Amino acid sequence: MADTFTPNLNLTKVEVGASVNTWGPKVNDNMTTLDTAVAARMPIGGGLFTGPVGIDGGSESAPGFYFDTSTGSGFFSDTDDELAITISETEIGRFSSSGLLMGKLAFDDELNGYVSTVNHFRIEAFQTDANNGGLVGYTRTGGSITEKIRLDENGRLGIGQSSPAALLDRNGTECWNVVDMAAGTAINMALGNHFYKTIATTTTFTITNVPGSRATGFILELTDGGSETINWPASVKWPNGVAPVLTASGVDVLFFVTRDGGTTWRGALSQEASA
């Protein structure tokens, strides 16, 4: 029976009972071929694997790993079709068909020389029962990391409030951006909700960039508003259909609100002749 050859590396399978004087060189050639193939795909001195790399547990129910270095594609699997990510034998997350599942995600500032084991910002998932859960955000203040924001199972957002009772529930002060209109006449709601202006000539106001289909409003502080003519947008509706008489020398505060994206504004004089 003549020599045969292996299907993958084409190694010589020496003819049984023959090759008395040639089996040595054939075995040596096989070893050289194996050495070259192994070194190319599994470099012991460092480097990169080439071609597909796989680790199989032996059955579909056993853990497995496969990665094709030529295409950059691969998969992980275990008995639940998920891969657990562990550090020091503690699970910190999982890959699954629905994406990356993380119970906790933490950030530090190691790049700026701070201790890498100290979290400066952390997001955690929480579970109220088997069917409900949400997210909690923490920041570090004065050396302690404490809860600052919470999104509960009902979609209610708490800021400084760990048990939000409304869609937005905050514990603290809300601040609005204050806009000096200077020589302008456009009340641009993309800039803020509190505007102020000194009137020195005939002025025609416009209201721009109103959030659509939402209730919103703004405050307008006018100095010497009664010293010149003011033309208001036709969309502004005043009590009894009459615009207020403003102070010629002093400060008036007006309030405006809309519930239809600015189609109609309800205006009112909130404070007259403020010192």
Question: Which structural traits does this protein have?
Answer:
43% strand, six-stranded mixed beta sheet, mainly beta, 1 helix, 24 strands, 275 residues, 4 domains
Descriptive overview:
This protein has 4 domains: 4-41, no CATH class; 50-99, no CATH class; 103-170; 178-274. Helices cover 7% and strands 43% of the residues. It contains 1 helix and 24 strands. The protein has one helix at residues 23-41, and strands at 4-5, 12-13, 52-56, 64-68, 73-77, 83-87, 90-96, 99-102, 104-107, 121-129, 132-141, 144-151, 157-159, 168-170, 178-180, 186-188, 194-198, 203-204, 206-208, 216-223, 230-231, 236-237, 251-258, 265-274. The strands form 7 sheets. The chain has a 6-stranded mixed beta sheet, with no helix packed on it. Strands 15-17-20-23-24-22 form a 6-stranded mixed beta sheet, with no helix packed on it. A 3-stranded antiparallel beta sheet has the order 3-4-5, with no helix packed on it. The longest helix has 19 residues, at 23-41. The chain is elongated. The relative contact order is 0.05. The mean pLDDT is 81.
Widest sheet, order of strands: 9-10-11-12-13-14
Overall, the morphology is elongated
Strand count, sense and barrel status of the largest sheet are: 6 strands, mixed
Strand content: 35-45%
| Number of structural domains | 4
Q: Spell out the helices and strands N to C.
A: EEHEEEEEEEEEEEEEEEEEEEEEE
Strand-pairing-aware structural class: mainly beta
Q: How far apart are the first and last residues' alpha carbons, in Å?
A: 115 Å
Count the E strands: 24
State the helical fraction. Answer: under 10%
Which radius of gyration do the C-alpha atoms yield? 37 Å
